[in-house]
TrEMBL record:
It is found in: Membrane. The lineage of its organism: Eukaryota, Metazoa, Ecdysozoa, Arthropoda, Crustacea. InterPro entries: DUF716, TMEM45. Keywords: Membrane, Transmembrane, Transmembrane helix. It is a multi-pass membrane protein. The chain crosses the membrane at residues 40-62, 104-123, 135-153, 165-184, 196-214. This is Transmembrane protein 45A-like. It comes from the Eukaryota.
């Protein structure tokens, strides 16, 4: 989930003329550095999200698999699949068996925070001028909507089955389309990195479709979690 979509080529603001002239960063140079998508600050949130959810989902899937295998052995069953069924988010039980999808809440909080930051960060002099921020906002919106719908499903609201998977697929497609348009005006290496992200996101879409159809296949679920982890390297590059 790259926050730099549509903002043009990445420049090296450490060599900003104003910064050189005065021996440090001026206000305008510092502002440019903070909004530059090529900085660590610009990539920290999406990098954190991909790392956290990739690792958390991997652990959760393996934990469910271990519990299902152990139960199958104790009950003398031939297969664990009757006890294993993965969900998009890792639902845990707290208090009196109340469904608490903690990672869905975390995703909703992260995307909501990023959406608000992108919105207010687009204003200059009382006017919304950074239209490229709307690209980032659209990505955060769909990922946040996915988490919100999953939370509603856990709370037994009348929502169609697999709606969370469908929305996650839509969010990934939106992200891939914006990455595709993000390579315009960039150098060969930078464009190549973003195309690798496009391919990785589409692989994630493939795993989501397979997992939606085969919820009891642990390898497909692990593939989806791993594909999210693969996105981390191009994002922080």
């Amino acid at each position: 989930m790259d926050p730099g979509i549509g903002k043009g080529p990445v420049s090296n603001h450490s060599m900003h003329p104003e910064a050189i002239g005065r021996g440090g960063l001026t206000h305008s140079a510092l502002e440019a550095l903070l909004v530059d998508p090529g900085t660590l600050l610009g990539h920290s949130l999406p990098g954190f999200m991909c790392t956290f959810f990739g690792l958390f989902w991997t652990y959760s899937i393996l934990h469910k698999y271990h519990v299902a295998r152990r139960g199958a052995i104790l009950l003398g069953k031939g297969s664990y699949k009757s006890s294993f069924k993965n969900t998009l988010f890792s639902t845990y039980y707290a208090c009196h068996c109340t469904n608490v999808p903690m990672d869905a809440y975390i995703l909703l909080i992260c995307t909501s925070t990023a959406f608000i930051a992108e919105f207010f960060g687009g204003f200059r002099g009382g006017e919304f001028v950074l239209m490229s921020n709307t690209h980032h906002m659209s990505i955060y919106f769909f990922y946040g909507l996915t988490a919100f719908v999953h939370i509603l499903m856990c709370r037994k609201h009348p929502i169609p089955v697999n709606s969370d998977y469908a929305l996650f697929i839509v969010a990934c497609i939106v992200e891939a389309l914006l990455f595709q348009g993000h390579i315009v005006g960039r150098g060969a290496i930078n464009a190549k990195i973003h195309m690798l992200l496009v391919y990785t996101v589409m692989v994630t879409v493939g795993f989501l479709v397979l997992e939606m159809a085969a919820r009891r296949n642990v390898l497909v679920s692990l593939g989806r979690a791993s594909s999210f982890l693969v996105q981390v390297k191009p994002i922080i590059t």
